[in-house]
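Worked problem 6 (solution included).
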Amino acid sequence: MNYSHNLAAFKILTGYIIFICHFTLNTSAQENVIKLGSHQAGWQAIIDNQTGVIVSYQTWHEGKWDEIDFRKDKFAGPAWKDVPLTLKDEKKILFEGNKNGINYSLQYLTEEGHLVVRAGMKNGSEQFISPLQARLIIGINSEMKTYPEWDNRFFPTLLRCEKTHFWGYFMSPKKRIFAVGVSDPVASYTINYIYEGLLEWKWGHQIFTASLDLLHQLPLPARHPQNQSSMNPGEYKKWDIHMGEVDSLSKVKVILSEWLKAPMIESERYTIAKGENTVLTINSSGKIAVQLIPPSGSIKKLSVHKKAAKRYTVDLNSDNLDDQGLYAIQVTDLVSNKTAEATINVREPFSWYMIKARDNAFTKKPIISESAESSYGFYAAFLARKYFPDKEKDSFLENLFNSKISLAFDLEKGQPLPDVSPQRVQNISTAIGLYTDLWEATKDTAYILCASRLGDYIASPVVQKEDGSYRSGKTHYTAVIYPAKSMLELAAAEKELATTNNFWRQRYTRHTVSAEKAITDLQLRLDDIETEGDMAFEDGMITCSALQLGLGALVTVDMKERALNTKAAAYMMDKHTCLEQNLIPDARMRGATLRFWEALDIYFVPNQIMCSPHGWTAWKIYADYYLYLLTGNEKYLNDFMDTLDSCLQVIDDKGELRWGFVPDPYIKAQQFVPESPGSIKGKKIDTVVGEQYLPMITGWFRPYDENKIVEFGDQGGSGDNTVYEIFKALEACALNKAYVIMEKDGTLKTWNCSARKEHGIVVIIPSEEVVSKIHLNMGIAAKVHVLFAGKEVDVNTEAGLRWVSKDGVPEY
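Solution. The predicted structure is:
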């Protein structure tokens, strides 16, 4: 691309040279544009002087401009939705337009080395106005449709309204971060999903961009400003929108706090068990006041410690957090009068969640259908049974599973029935996982034999191709849920039987080899991969690949292959960061993944809402867990614990299991509810949801005939059992496990246990009787004494990673 510049003017503003110029984008087509920024400033924005939208935003890296892609279609921006603007004042870079007596404006400015877009509205009419929303399209291209183009698209990773301001960021799989903040109150925001503007349902895994709803009618989440819905005659409102690239996640809150003169809150941990502590770090330009609002609602003032310039800390301990539940932390900058909010959750013991998950499966009976998702409640049933047997519930759920599973599978031949979606590989691998867990709970070899026969089908050429991939026809399916992980779970069970039995030894070997071949294929493909449905840089495609690579690394005895799989898993999770809630100061979502198509049309019309967390968020937990065991990198432990803790909050304080959490602040749609009290039929009602949990529907939305397979679209078919993946991950990663890190200076950090030093010995006390394994990450050698329930274990451990187990058997 050749540029020829015709310098029109220049000026020095806030220490940077700002150029305003006209230039040719290519040799055949000339466009009139305005350029802000410079090499010295490290950024430039190229603005279309006909419409006022950003044509291109670029940052200067290593001697070249790197572009952040803005859209070129009806979602180009920044732009007032449905209001054409024209250049009013070239020197001020001011664009204006009028519609229905309202004057809309955009002005481009710079401040402290970054771009500021001043959006303005003036009610020039004689009428009081209260629109549904006054929307400003941001315009950053978020459409992640193809590989490798999606590497340069920016997902709306975090968008958050506070009472006095707005902040967030867009992030690409390459971990480039484009921060956006508004120093004035913003009523709400909207993610522009693929269906926007369409009159009927549309399938798709795409987001076009995101928009700021500078005015918006109520209801909105309580944290949002509640008075930004209207304008009086003659009234003028303005919003200064700050934007620019930030080079790391650790700097996002620091920089946005500077830009907006607003406090930003970060916590060591967002969920803690009763009696544990956490520390808040707050960036703020002025002195702050902090108050705590417990679940009871009684407000407490908290003590603040100044640690550095513009940085404060607040200790939260068991004296402040004495009951389970969600606590709000409200911070006010006493100079700027800006406020910010965070939430901290005090959780129940992990065993409580496992038992309640089984109780919910008992009352909201899972079904066997054409979709594996419908049967996931059985996972919670069989896994809870291993630790907390309940004769009535366990017997009922075992019998229910046995009476339904033959509706989908020929268990003698070990294959799906030909008329029950045999192409859905995840149906088969899920059945393998369920049978394996039922065998672990009962030790009935009939169950492991059923799983093993289905494993043979997965390993056969019908599903596994020469390259090692598991496929449905020609479509790559290894990362649709996790068939290789299910095969390794099966192989681990078969290994227990293989020590004295050649029949099981052969099966263990066959299924292990099959899984290893599939994982090697993932290692070679990385994110150049396919998934079920619409192509996208898709949450599950990435985490399911990463978790299987991580598990493959843990179980292999080939150290070269372990290193390759570990590197590949870390690469995938690094790219996945753009789909994670890693900075949100909200315990309900911290660490959760971002998905936006699971509601389908059975919950809502239109079908797309964000869900974070959702059952499939648990795939990230496995991936981080395996990577922590492989590397000892504390970030993976913090991340999987944050994610697990946010996921577990889908069970409310009364023990009721919900489908997932919706972070979108305002979705107006039709929700699926019972036709009448006690009815198994549903109807759709007009509703508005925002920042809330959605209930499950399996408990009331039942098939007319529960003795027949439920086909797609049938009465009683639903995907809400996906939520039980969370409890499968809980059992695998945390229920019976605790974690200790000992730094080189002797500092101890613990998860699901407590630890102290006594006479040079590290004494560890698990938080619950169910804990039978302690993972140690030792910076120095030490003597360790573990007080397991009913047994005390002593070990001398060197620096490094190791398990200490009640039964002497390590996890891996």
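Discussion: Residues 502-525 form the longest helix (24 residues).
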